[in-house]
Amino acid sequence: MDRAELAGWLRLSLTPGIGDGAARRLLAAFGLPENVFAQTGEALRQVVSAAQADALHQPPLGLQAQLDQTWQWLQPGHDDGTARRLVTLGDAAYPASLLEMADPPLMLYVLGAADFDLTQLGRSIAVVGSRNPTPQGAANARAFARALGDAGLPVVSGLALGVDGAAHQGALDAAGDMPRLATVAVVGTGLDRVYPARHRDLAHRITLQGLIVSELPLGTPPLTQNFPKRNRLIAGLARGTLVVEAALASGSLITARLTSEQGKEVFAIPGSIHSPQSRGCHALIRQGAKLVESVNDILEELPSPHAGSAATPAAANGDAGAVSAAREEPLLDALGFDPVSLDALSARTGWSAAALQARLLELELDGQVARLPGGLFQRTAAA
């Protein structure tokens, strides 16, 4: 793409009142963006409203600055060694799955390894969930993502705190040093910034073994209204969506709904009836999502060449020995999988508080128990 062509795409995307739908009609009628801007007002009004036609004859504010910034961003030779691409509607590299959506984005900004592209996502799974998961929820997200990666499926998520971050990490764990597309992060900001900032290192890892994608112009801050738009792209890129944990009012449920509306599979991991973070998954299951207990429940719906050798979530984390040992640990049996207080554990086991504290600390250091706010404890390894 040369600078003049880039200017046309940016102008079309930034013109006030011209959304993706109007832009697609204009492109269908007149071809490339520069042809759109060469049309008379009368010709434009045959395709869009009079107000939209008038807006197209006025270059949007800030266009030149955006053009300069984007052109510079696209140039090769950056210190981080990543490839930067702008994939436009109709480009051969534009993912076919997005074309099946009602409102595919006009452009996608893509940052990541040069060997990977979005057309490699035909067998991917989205893994989404709470920004504040339970310890078990975070462990499940990482373990399932790793198991999906071991089965050869790239993982799509949103780079948010909590489940999203754990899912990206699990997918990267599975890839190891292998040169394959491990994960794709779809973000709700411009690609010249990382949000949340604490995921800067994770974002860097993703650019080495995956891709970061946005439909938003460079410089776009993390605005609330952009994240539901981001969710539709997560649903659109992936073959199906796994919801790990989610409250009833959750962006993850938006992603699940959009996945279902696109005719794709929705999967949900059940949890404790006492946990608010499980209620969204339970609602999805009642609405027809597939209840998932192991990664094979997903692979059955999405056949993979490596499905027969896929690990269970526990094995994906290298926890097979810990699981076997857990079956012989009476305190873990007493804990169950719901958060529980020290007093309740004492009543269940008959142990003193001092004995419980000592053993719980050992289990915590082994990664089998998590200490929660409010003096509660929760088991974190699935038996």
TrEMBL record:
InterPro entries: DprA, DprA_WH, DrpA_SLOG, RuvA_2-like, WH-like_DNA-bd_sf. Residues 86-302 form the Smf/DprA SLOG domain. It comes from the Bacteria. Belongs to the DprA/Smf family. It comes from Variovorax beijingensis. Residues 322-375 form the DprA winged helix domain. This is DNA-protecting protein DprA.
